[in-house]
Amino acid sequence: MEALLKRIWGDISSLPESRKIALMYWTVAIVLFGAQLIFGLIAAIQYVNPDFLFDVLPFNIARMLHINAMVVWLIMGFIGGIYWLLPDETGTDVVGASLGKIAFYLLTGAVSVVVLVYILVQTGKGEFFTIWFINEGREYIEAPRWADIGIVAVMGIIYFNVLATVLKSKRITGLLGVLLVDLIALAGLYMAGMFFTPNITLDQFWWWWVVHLWVEATWEVLVGVLMGWALMHVLGTPRRIVEGWLYLEVLLVFGTGILGLGHHYYWIGTPEYWLGIGGFFSSLEPIPLVAMIVHAVYDAGMHKLHTVNRPALFFIFLQAFGNFFGAGVWGFMHTLPQINLYSHGTQMAASHGHLAFFGAYVATNLVLIYIALQQIRSPEGPILDSRTWKIAYVGMIASMVGMVGALLVAGFAQTFFERAVGGSTWQDYILTQMHPWVKIPMFWRLGFGVLFFLFYLVLVYDILTIGRKAKEPSVEVKPA
Amino acid sequence: MKDFSWLEVTVASLLFILVIGSLWTRGRNWLDPVFWKRFAIVGSLVMFTFLWILTFDTLSKTRIGTDRVPSPDVINYKITYEYDPQKGYYMPVIHKDKKEPLFGKEVSPQEAMELIIKGKLVIQSRACMNCHTLLGNGAYYAPDLTKAWLDPKWEKIMIPATESETKEEAMVKFLMNPEKYATWTRRMPNLNLSEEEAKAVVAYLKWMSAINTNGFPDHFGESKLAKF
Ligand code: HEM
Ligand code: HEM
Ligand SMILES: [Fe+2]
User: Fold this and answer.
1) Which residues of B touch A347 (CB under 8 A)?
2) What separation, in Å, do the N-terminal and C-terminal C-alpha atoms of chain A show?
3) What burial letters (b/e) apply to A134-149, b meaning 16+ CB within 10 Å?
4) Is residue B93 part of a domain?
5) Which of A135, A261, A429 sits opposite B143 (nearest CB)?
6) What angle do CA B107, B113, B119 make, to 5 degrees?
7) Helix, strand or coil for residue A470?
8) Would the CB atoms of B153 and A55 count as touching at under 8 Å?
9) Does A268 reach chain B within 8 Å, measured CB to CB?
């Protein structure tokens, strides 16, 4: 393992164990990112050519792999981030490093088994056996029950690592305090998704506790912690300022996002009061995202963009603006019940989901990875920079915007034709899918998807190479 | 119990945060991080408490057998979807005076319950929700199934196409051989449903169409687009 990490990341001999674990997680995360894109591309091809892999890997399986790979790699990336900042925040190496490594292998092993079963077995009979050992058939949390239990156990070990290290260091920073509470909530919520009920209203009620209260509450706070730490390291923002902002963000994220959950309870059989509660609070959810932009831009302005790490700084901007546009603006577009009655379950949601996950969470992971690269390959300067990261950066953003724009057009057309003019039936669905305003965007989405994948490859190349030859004059040395 | 008013809940939750937060931070400068720390704690706890209260209320109103989520034996009756002028949205109507037993055989409440448990297991086992939406949640590759039981296409096209006598028979045939009865180029794959499984799914779809979804999808089946 050490040898592999060394080849990928550079000289890691002087790193604390905690950071080696971080690199193990990030290595798997980046590979899974690629797998996510490949399965997304297969699903996108099936939209334009339904016969593609029809008998081998039907759309539902491709899509399941696409979104599950996403959830797993993003979480693994976050875990990597936590292990990376832990020695820094506590001033000591992780307690129980070998246990932490075992947890990593368990998680990676379990994920591999689950993926193989998805691909080779795919589906089972309508019996409990399927839910326990093949797939659970509930979007994002399809992992079979045995894996759910395994994941919670692994999370327990990771939590132990963090907690024991904090206790040993006998000091706790505000960042770590928020992190410790948030991780409990995050793991606890996952358990809300671990039971069977024939009542689909109840099923979706708890399912959204996991999905919404993850991405719009606990994950949002988690990236608040990670980005706060990143700002201290990339721009040298004082801790006091970072922590003050973090508390404000927690107040605003939880203050709006918890009852904002109601925007998923409009049409699943739950009482009417959710229309008002969900509409009101979810409309306020963009406010913390504006606060995060102000924070990042203000800090960067204060330092006149002086930084030791150009890619990390730019991914911080992507995170701030991507989170605001993807989650805040795109989310707000369909969050009022009066609009959602017609847009619910259309490509609108896919448009929003892609931009939000990319802007908020992919970007966070890349910020942390670039900070790590700088600390490994160029700890004493010169500043971390290259040409390829810029290509990957601009390319990924442009192709994501292309995909999201195409889906937005398709989503609007579905909202109008299938839902408002039509009567939401089987035939209305088919006629709308064949309408040029839905049909053509599906080609654009595929095209931009292919581009996105190519820029992902550029990104991987850059991660492997940036800063390696930092002493050569071809790399710009003086800060901007 | 009467429904909460959304406005009361909203105002009450915000007031609690404001009052408790102000008391706990009194005398502190608002630029002090501790000021925001305390507000963050209060805000999170108050909102989480409200969520739990609302959750208990919602759970009691959405149990199987309530007027929002009816008992599974509604599959013995005719179900329609009609505009309710008082509520201002479309509501499922269960015609208790018009028997319409599924597959021509009336079932007991317990048999009906067993059918929908089986139906739900089949739906999860085949990951239907990674192609379709149910109650509007899932994937966008295939039609929404919330009111599939009430879809006019079964009577207008699928009964003749499958040479069936009834809608439920047509549905079972379609679910067991979707590629054979495909109606456009994007086909549904054969998911190897047994006849027992397909029947349970049909029962599930009929039961689901009777859930009160606050008017989603609006004016289902009344289309200015699709004409048969
Ligand atoms: C980073 C944060 C966010 C992420 C990653 C995210 C992601 C998603 C995803 C993936 C879905 C589709 C869920 C499904 O598969 O059914 C969704 C749905 C939705 N999101 Fe977000 N979201 C975020 C924040 C927000 C915010 C702040 C708002 C409101 C202002 C919002 C409003 C909505 C609404 C209304 C839906 C339901 C769409 C429907 O009815 O079909 N989201 N979100
Ligand atoms: C090569 C690029 C990509 C392609 C071609 C692609 C394609 C797709 C397709 C075809 C779906 C199924 C949508 C449906 O049900 O109709 C999907 C869903 C989804 N993808 Fe992607 N995707 C790509 C990249 C990404 C990235 C980078 C992310 C986020 C990090 C992402 C997150 C999601 C999510 C959250 C969903 C579920 C959306 C929902 O249910 O509303 N995808 N994607
Ligand atoms: Fe949400």
Assistant:
1) 140
2) 37
3) bbbbbbbbbbbbebbe
4) yes
5) A429
6) 105
7) coil
8) no
9) yes
Looking at residue A153, its pLDDT comes to 93
User: Once rounded to an integer, what is the mean pLDDT over residues A390-414?
Assistant: 98
| Conformational region of residue B227, where left means phi above 0, alpha means psi within -120 to 50, and beta covers everything else | beta
Q: Is the pLDDT of residue A473 over 70?
A: no
Rg of chain A in Å (alpha carbons): 22
How many structural domains compose chain B? Answer: 2
B85 and B194 within one domain:
yes
A273-284 and A239-260 are packed helices; what angle lies between their axes, rounded to 10 degrees? 160
Ligand nearest A354 Cα, by number? 2
- Is any atom of ligand 2 closer than 6 Å to the C-beta of B6? no
Task: Quote the ligand 2 centre to A37 CA distance (angstroms).
Answer: 8
What is the arithmetic mean of pLDDT over A76-87?
98
Q: What is the CATH number of the domain that holds B116?
A: 1.10.760.10
Chain A neighbors of B44, CB-CB under 8 A: 250-251, 254-255, 258
Residue A247 and residue B135: Cβ atoms within 8 Å? no
A228-237: per-residue pLDDT in tens?
999 999 998 9
Do B58 and B92 belong together in one domain? no
pLDDT in the model for residue A271: 97
Among A26, A36, A90, residue whose Cα is nearest residue A64: A36
Largest CA-CA distance found in chain A, in angstroms, rounded: 66
Residue A406 pLDDT greater than 70, yes or no: yes
**Closest of A356, A360, A368 to residue A311, by C-alpha:** A368
Mean pLDDT, range B213-221, rounded to an integer: 98
Q: Which residues of chain A make contact with B134, given a CB cutoff of 8 A?
A: 200
Could you read off the pLDDT of B74-121 as tens digits, one per residue? 999 999 999 999 999 999 999 999 999 999 999 999 999 999 999 999
Count Cβ–Cβ pairs < 8 Å, chain A vs chain B: 293
Pocket of ligand 1, beta carbon within 6 A? A 139, 215-216, 263, 282, 285-286, 323, 327-328, 331-332, 334-335, 340, 344-345, 349, 352-353, 356-357, 360; B 136-137
Co-location of B98 and B41 in the same domain: no
**What is chain B's Cα-based Rg?**
23
Percent of chain A with pLDDT over 70: 98
Question: B172 vs chain A: nearest CA distance in angstroms?
Answer: 15
Instruction: Read off the tokens for A172.
Output: 């706790």
**Which residues constitute the domain of residue B13?**
6-62
Question: What spacing in Å lies between the alpha carbon of A300 and ligand 3's midpoint?
Answer: 30
- Cβ-in-10-Å burial (0-12, 13-18, 19+) of A16 comes to middle
> ipTM of this predicted complex?
0.97
Q: Which of A215, A254, A270, A289 to mutate to test the pocket of ligand 1 (most atoms within 8 A of CB)?
A: A215
User: Does ligand 2 lie within 6 Å of residue A37's CB atom?
Assistant: yes
Q: Does residue B213 share a domain with residue B140?
A: yes
